[in-house]
């Protein structure tokens, strides 16, 4: 092979990697991430009064909690704010990472829009998500934040 052909091949490989890396964002398919659990049909709608917390595991302090959920190898993050009342999630917001590329930001924004429908009305113990709105990696960041919030909100009652 001639040297200029090797140079072109190396350049082509490097360009392919440079183009594909930003596309990883939240779309990475991590085989260690379990698939989302099917939503039980007996889950009360968000407008229903919360279930009795004594029927669940841990009791959590009412309040609003904001933490950063970290995920991925870059690493990426999202800022998650959860409001709890009677150990039940009554509000949630997900703020995407501000210094993100357009592709990853798109995944995070679609994920952020889908999260409230999945967790509002659930107990904090039940608030784990899988792939939402095509974003599988974002779920790892959200679940990381939920773990941190559980630790902060745990009460000794």
Structure characterization notes:
This protein is of the alpha+beta class and 157 residues long. The protein has one domain. Helices cover 34% and strands 18% of the residues. It is built from 3 helices and 3 strands; from the N terminus they run H-E-E-E-H-H. The N and C termini lie far apart (74 Å).
Features of the shown structure:
157 residues, alpha+beta, 3-stranded antiparallel β-sheet, 3 helices, elongated
Provide mean pLDDT, rounded. 74
- Report strand %: 15-25%
Helix content: 25-40%
Number of helices: 3
- The Rg value, from CA coordinates, equals 20 Å
- How many strand units? 3
Return residue spans where pLDDT drops below 50 for at least 5 consecutive residues: 14-25, 27-56
What sort of overall outline do the alpha carbons produce when their principal axes are compared?
A: elongated
The figure for the number of domains is: 1
Query: What's the helix-strand series?
Result: HEEEHH
Structural class, by secondary structure, is: alpha+beta
> How far from one another are the termini?
74 Å
Main beta sheet: 3 strands, antiparallel
Give the strand order of the largest sheet, numbering strands 1, 2, ... along the chain: 1-2-3
């Amino acid at each position: 092979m001639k040297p200029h052909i090797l140079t072109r091949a190396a350049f082509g490989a490097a360009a392919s990697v440079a183009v594909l890396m930003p596309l990883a964002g939240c779309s990475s398919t991590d085989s260690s991430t379990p698939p989302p659990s099917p939503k039980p049909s007996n889950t009360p709608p968000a407008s229903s009064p919360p279930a009795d917390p004594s029927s669940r595991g841990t009791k959590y302090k009412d309040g609003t909690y904001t933490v950063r959920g970290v995920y991925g190898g870059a690493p990426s993050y999202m800022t998650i704010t959860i409001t709890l009342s009677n150990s039940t999630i009554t509000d949630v917001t997900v703020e995407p990472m501000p210094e993100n590329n357009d592709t990853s930001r798109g995944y995070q924004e679609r994920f952020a829009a889908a999260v409230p429908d999945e967790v509002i009305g659930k107990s904090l113990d039940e608030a784990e998500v899988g792939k939402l709105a095509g974003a599988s990696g974002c779920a790892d960041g959200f679940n990381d934040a939920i773990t941190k919030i559980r630790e902060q909100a745990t009460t000794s009652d």
